[in-house]
Amino acid sequence: MRVTGLRARSVGVRDVAARAGVSRQTVSRVLNEHPDVAPETRERVLTAVSELGYRMNNVARALGTRRSRTIGVLAQAALHYGPSRSIEAIESAARSAGYWVSAVFADSTGEDTVREAIEHLLGQGVDGLVVVAPHARTLQTLDAMDIGIPTVTLHSAGRDGRGLAVDQVAGARLATGCLADAGHRRIAHLAGPADWLEAEARQAGFAQELAARGLAPGPVVSGDWTARSGHDASAIIAESGATAVFSANDQMALGLLGGLRELGIRVPEDVSVVGFDDVPDAAFYAPALTTVRQDFAELARLAVSRLVDAGTDAAEPVAPVLVHRASVAPPQR
To answer: Hey, which residues does 152 pair with through a beta bridge?
Structure first.
């Protein structure tokens, strides 16, 4: 039964020690998961913790152990699918490892904003830092700071030594190769924003796969990750004479499908389309979208492992997977 008489003041270690009949030092060892505590003593302390409703103060814990069991996350572009899925996956992986997440959202347009967000997380005594860094300027800000704790970057396309990444170039080559394998020779690319490292890597993979197959460079149309930009690009792509399109993300592919349909162009009969990300709705597009799947859960697991378990500093990029659906067919012209 939970005791409520102590609610007039905060329940402390002294109260837990009195209830369990042990010293405060023993309570501290149990709470900090010290191995040198007898099982029956540990059980008495944990029972007292539950009965009294004691809550660990992470700041006090950090003072005593130099560990807050909290991972800081600097989140940028959190409204976009990749970063948002990564943030969710980091929290899940951290919880599985017995850690909490403290997240700060920062606009990446200014160095001061990113710096202030990192300083805020460091001030909370976090044990490690995950920086969702889709822009080169964020990496530059990190390089200029003396952070002093383990740090991992995500969504930087593996551009720095701290980074963990899904292999963006390989994913783009899978998408482009899928279209070439279907017989397409004039393949367009609906590209992401120029200031995103992953967009740059996907465009590079597109060009590399065409070159490896001896195909002429296809037209490149810039988008901004949104379905609206994909819709706006449909007329340009239709006029280009391309029979296939690799879209740098699924949202732009969704807009492209709608725009082509409005122009009387059928997918995949007239134009084939491959996306990137495998968003949950991609299987229900019309037609169901062939796309490249990224394993955000594995990426988050690796990031948390590196911070918590002192995992290896070097890690191979996570391999993407091509998901075949109905939006690709051989060309009819």
So the answer is: 130
Residues forming beta bridges with residue 96, ordered by sequence position: none
CA distance 25 to 303: 33
- Residues 235 and 205 reside in one and the same domain: yes
CA-CA distance, 217 to 102, in Å (whole number)? 45
Nearest Cα to Cα of residue 195 among 156, 228, 233, 160: 156
Under 8 Å between Cβ of 245 and 188: yes
Residue 48 structural domain: 5-56
Same-domain pairing of 188 and 214: yes
Q: What is the DSSP string of 89-152?
A: HHHHHHHHTT-EEEEEE--TT-HHHHHHHHHHHHHTT-SEEEEE--SHHHHHHHHTS---S-EE
DSSP string, 62-79: HHHHS---EEEEEE-STT
Closest CA to 147 of 131, 165, 158, 133: 131
Q: What's the distance, CA 1 to chain centroid?
A: 42
As a whole number of angstroms, the distance between CA 185 and CA 6 comes to: 75
d(CA 21, CA 151): 42
Residue by residue, DSSP assigns 219-288 as PEEE--SSHHHHHHHHHHHHHHT-SEEEESSHHHHHHHHHHHHHTT--TTTT-EEE-SB--TTGGGSSSP
Contact 60, 10 (CB under 8 A): no
Query: Nearest CA to 300 among 158, 154, 120?
Result: 154
pLDDT digits (tens, 9 = 90+) for 6-22: 343 467 788 889 999 99
From residue 323, give the alpha-carbon distance in Å to each of 196, 274, 282, 327: 24, 9, 10, 11
With respect to residue 304, please indicate whether it lies within any of the assigned structural domains. Answer: no
Answer whether residue 63 is part of any domain. Answer: no
Contact 164, 302 (CB under 8 A): yes
Return the structure tokens found at 51.
Answer: 């009965």
* Residues 119-175 pLDDT 10s: 888 888 888 999 888 888 888 888 888 888 889 998 888 777 778 999 999 999 999
CA torsion 167-173-179-183 (nearest 10°) is: -150
